[in-house]
Write a structure and sequence with these properties.
The complex is a heterodimer. Chain A is built from no helices and 11 strands. Chain A is an all-beta fold. Classes of the chains: A mainly beta, B mainly beta.
């Protein structure tokens, strides 16, 4: 079964602390993994995709096929990082739908 | 930067009524999607649309739901006879194709009373 699991509903850290938002997936083929972010009252925005292997706003995520994980990390959290973060996977075909995790609310306190 | 736009932002309707949620995808995009998010739950795929036909739909997308791209710019989701459990945030999304990223609209909050 295709599934994305984000075990933490809420993650609260202080400004400057490291952040890791966990994401595990279940998929029989070779999925494409994404992180989407939703700031308060705004649309879902693509943050990262594993094939790009880039760092956006200081966030990185590495696909670990052995552990079927795609955790999102940032070494020093900022208050403006406070948002909902959704991990998602796609089957990789052109019209492929996205399967989302439950989302993790990141709260960065001053 | 072009955006996916959705109207209305909030729609309130009575149970049993028909609703049409409207979306204008980004103009050169070829793949169109509807997702929904019931309060407190995950974002769920409803339907994908390509080349003027449904390419995939979920179990949620039953006979009460339909999609249309009537004029080459709008992409609509119709719910024929709304139920209380249809209350959710509905997101439209589009993408150019291939490996291009999915762009989401701001969503329409549907409240069925």
């Amino acid at each position: 079964a295709q599934r994305v699991t984000q075990p933490e509903k809420l993650l609260s850290v202080f400004k400057g602390a490291p952040v890791e938002l966990k994401c595990n997936y279940s998929y029989s083929g070779s999925p494409e993994l994404f992180w989407y972010v939703q700031y308060s009252r705004q649309r879902l925005q693509l943050l990262l995709r594993h094939i790009s292997r880039e760092s956006i706003k200081g966030f990185t995520a590495d696909l670990n096929k052995g552990e079927t994980s795609f955790h999102l990390k940032k070494p020093f959290a900022q208050e403006e990082d406070s948002a909902m973060y959704y991990c998602a996977l796609s089957g990789g075909n052109q019209g492929g739908k996205l399967i989302f995790g439950q989302g993790t609310e990141l709260s960065v306190k001053p | 930067e072009p955006e996916v736009t959705q109207t209305p932002s909030h729609q309130v309707t009575q149970m049993g009524q028909e609703v049409i949620l409207r979306c204008v995808p980004i103009s050169n995009h070829l793949y169109f999607y509807w997702y929904r998010q019931i309060l407190g739950q995950k974002v769920e795929f409803l339907v994908s649309f390509y080349n003027n036909e449904i390419s995939e739909k979920s179990e949620i997308f039953d006979d009460q739901f339909s999609v249309e791209r009537p004029d080459g710019s709008n992409f609509t989701l119709k719910i024929r006879s709304t139920k209380l459990e249809d209350s959710a945030m509905y997101f439209c999304a589009s993408k150019r194709g291939g490996n291009s990223p999915l762009h989401f609209g701001n969503g329409t909050r549907l409240t069925v009373t």
